[in-house]
Amino acid sequence: MESESDVRICKICHTQPQKYLCPKCGIGYCSVACYKAEVHLECSESFYKKCVEEELKLDEQDPETKTRMLEVLQRMHEEHAGDLEEIEDLAQHGLDSDDDEEAPDLSQRLRNINLDDADSVWAALTDAERQEFETLLQNGEAEKLLPQWNPWWSHHAKPKLVEDLSPTSSPLDYRTNCPKLKEIKPYDQISKVPPAKCVRNNVLNVLHAYTFTVLYFNGNHHDFAEEAIFILLQLCNNLRENEIFNEPELAIESVSQRAINCQSLIADPENLSAAKSACLSILQGPENSNKCFYVKAAFSDIHQLFMEAKTLSKRKKPSNNMDKEFTKRFPDHGKLLTAIPREKLRLHLKKLEYYLSWINSYGEDLYFDF
User: Fold this and answer.
1) What is the total count of domains within the chain?
2) pLDDT range class, residue 22, cuts 50, 70, 90
């Protein structure tokens, strides 16, 4: 008699826990690789055949469609074992006109849908497409579909033995790729009181929360200003709770701990290390003669992000999407839509302006060795 643990093991590789059930034969499997395995070839080939049939029914007379499908079939020959001559024959000669009507192509289903509305997009997907999406999330493959982003703070100029002073020389790359610097008054013009020593550490706390947030959104944080601000505030105790940090190590570690404890985020060692490395890269600056330029750019970017969130909060009322299917299935998405009061956004902006002014006057000494 099989134990409960045996029942939950993949019936194809017999090593990994099963995550899915084949809709045709009901066998439990753990991954796409096992689904495509030779012992399961009868089901997987019928699945690919059905996909071809669905595509061909959209436009039998379109030669470009047939050409594209033949290219797909060729790749399938290379990737999967088995005889697919029957499928190729379908691609070459089309289908009988009395075949059942199939669902339209995904591009047609999404034609009049707002792609920023996750619930509407989810409703337009077929069951197979939804399962594929969840498989990508569970296997950690979804991130690989995102385009590679090169952070603006990754450029560091090497010292030059000969300086080009020609007026026709091109501007430095890091100035053009960075966020636009916000103009701010010097510290002595906004405050007559010397800054406390803890300001330096508080700036580190904000900066580390910023790098984690930007990397989390793969550099597209301005496309999701409200969600990005929500995450940044979850990570940054100084902005959210006015916590004061007397040691730089505590300011940095606070963000890591907040990320680990935040259910909305994936805070594995790789993500935490990447955020710290990014923070250090910003602190190092693009070159020795302009060391705090990246810190100014980072805080200018944070200020702009809060301004965008403030504008969005004025334009629309907070919506409750928790009764919709996608938000129910992926509740973290709904949590990120929590609105931040405009008065709090205004106070955060004032604090960021104070830090920007401090950086302009004292930022050259801002450094922390991770």
Assistant:
1) 2
2) confident
